[in-house]
Amino acid sequence: MVSNCFSLGLHLHPHPHKHNHHSLSSLRSHTNAKLYQHVSFTASTHKGFYTSSGSTFDPLRRGRKDYGWGNHNLTSIRPRDIRPRFSATMTGSASDDFGYDESQFDPSLTNDDLKPTTPSQRTFSWLDMSSLWIGLVVGVPTYYLAGSLVDLGMAWWQGIATVIAANLILLVPLVLTAQPGTMYGISFPVLARSSFGIRGAHIPTLLRALVGCGWYGIETWIGGEAIFLLLPAHVKNSALSHTLPWLGTSPLEFSCFIVFWLAQLCIVWRGMDGIRKLEKYSAPVLITLTSCLLVWSYLKAGGFGHMLSLSSKLTSAQFWTLFFPSLTANISFWATLALNIPDFSRFAKSQTDQIIGQVGLPVFMGLFTFVGVAVTSSTSIIFGRVISNPIELLGQIGGLATTLLAIVGISLATITTNIAANVVAPANALVNLNPKFFTFGRGAFLTAVLGIVFQPWRLLKSSESFVYTWLIGYSALLGPIGGIVLVDYYLIKKMKLNIGDLYSLSPSGEYYFSKGYNVAAVVALVAGIIPVVPGFLHKIGALSEISNGFVVVYDNALFFSFIIAAFVYWIIMSRLRRKQTSFSSSSHQLL
Predict the structure, then answer these.
(1) Which residue from 321, 338, 329 is spatially nearest to 474, judged by alpha carbons?
(2) pTM of the full structure
(3) Residues 6+ apart with CB under 8 A from 390
(4) How far is C-alpha 178 from the geometric centre of its chain's CA atoms?
């Protein structure tokens, strides 16, 4: 798919909103010579059509030959039946250059949070994008990743290599999905309209939102747990720390959870600019605190000799049996953000900024997982036992200064990860669901409430393997969506989107399909999910026995679901386009 992008002339212009400097008059002049290459005609109730400035323009007011219509007999066609669609190739990428008029957007499909970003709103530099990934990567769940693989028998370098390999693979769809966000200034819910349909886009966005709400609750509970574990001993041993059966946790732990929940909400309420500033200014703090922890463990343990001496406990066959599901789980770890990355890339200053900034993902993941493995292995020397939980480790170190730094560090790490990864997508999905009612702030608030409803303390206490069941399980939902969106944008649409029709409920709109739903996308989505279902049911104990083939499919759920859905969607849409082209040719001859 990458090679195909370059063969199509991937619009990775360093300044997308400066891509074309045509004035409206020169654009009209250019249109006179080339319009026949870039305009499709659909039935419309408008008497004329709108130019990029919003003024009405009658195509029959000027000579037919000016528009390259040749000798076709257009006597029977009235101005009210013709509406042009300007492609991005012709018009560039500034909002006005794309040939749409925001005043014509259907109010039920847009508000200030869903409109394409303007050049003045594109403030994310490559440094901001890199800072975003630092804030995302440095967190408690990431700390566990490579260490958990070492616990399962991998050598330390094998565990880190698996994490880096997974993120290098993920980098490809990450950059490809981010491209339309920067090119057109649109968020993921709006991009999904081009493949799933104006109304069908609710399916992928709400599935992504559901996963985000679950993770929001889990991350918030981890942040609350940090506060609880670092409280004075006499407080933790009080009557408030006793578990209430109906609640599933203690009042004290639940209170810590709510305190952290409220702290995050204050930041989220400030919108995307507040999130950008939080990520940018937290990045150096998190790097400094992580470095201090690494240096401390090195000095206390007398070097990393113990970690370097850890060899693999697995045979070659056992390693590969563990490697592929581990690779899938690690790709799934950030598959959520790879899907809705346009929510962030739409604010990037240029394609260069978003690409360079995203390269930080495998780099920072590799470095931070190294810290996790190194510090965890050193605890067996320092304390005589392995302490894999960083919160517990910081509590074990003790001291007022350490406690304060731990609260600040873990709170920042959790908040920066949670807000960017688990709030933005659900909030935008809810805005897309009902733009008249939901703003970004209201969507974020409902996301936070649903995070409590998920009762993450019950989820995390059920079993240690839950996270891996959770990661691989939801990858079967996100994989097909990613495959459909990428195939549609790069292979079907050839990176050309009609921005006006992305905000239109007109039955003649390009993305209205069948009553607002693209049946081909829904069929492809189901086709990608079904093969993974038996393995998932077996994993949670609902099925006692299944064939080995279903186990392999489930262990590699992200890959199988992505490929199957992408292939099915490409086949269906290609056949439909051929039929449509054949019908258009016949109609053209009749005209």
Answers:
(1) 329
(2) 0.75
(3) 140, 143, 293, 372, 375, 410
(4) 9
Pairing of strands 49-50, 56-57: antiparallel
Q: Give the angle 555-157-310 at the CA atoms, nearest 5°.
A: 110
Half-sphere exposure of 421 (CA within 13 A, CB side): 30
Helices (runs of H) and strands (runs of E) counted in the chain: 27, 2
Share above pLDDT 70 across residues of the chain, in percent, rounded to a whole number: 80
- Encode 292-306: b = buried (16+ Cβ within 10 Å), e = exposed: ebbeebeeebeebeb
In whole angstroms, what is the distance from residue 25 CA to residue 389 CA?
64
Residue with tokens 């990176």: 495
Tokens of 308: 């370097």
Tokens, residue 244 = 């209430």
Report the distance separating Cα 58 and Cα 47, nearest Å: 8
d(CA 141, CA 466): 13
CA distances from 216 to 261, 328, 333 (A): 10, 21, 13
147's tokens? 């260490």
Rg (the chain; Cα; Å): 26
Per residue in 149-194, pLDDT (tens digit) is 877 888 888 889 999 999 999 999 999 999 999 999 999 999 999 9
Tokens coding 252: 């004290």
Residues in a beta bridge with 57? 49
Residue 50 gets which letter from DSSP? E
- What pLDDT digit, counting tens, does each position of 279-293 carry? 778 888 888 888 988
C-alpha separations of 442 from 35, 256, 412, 550 in Å: 43, 23, 23, 41
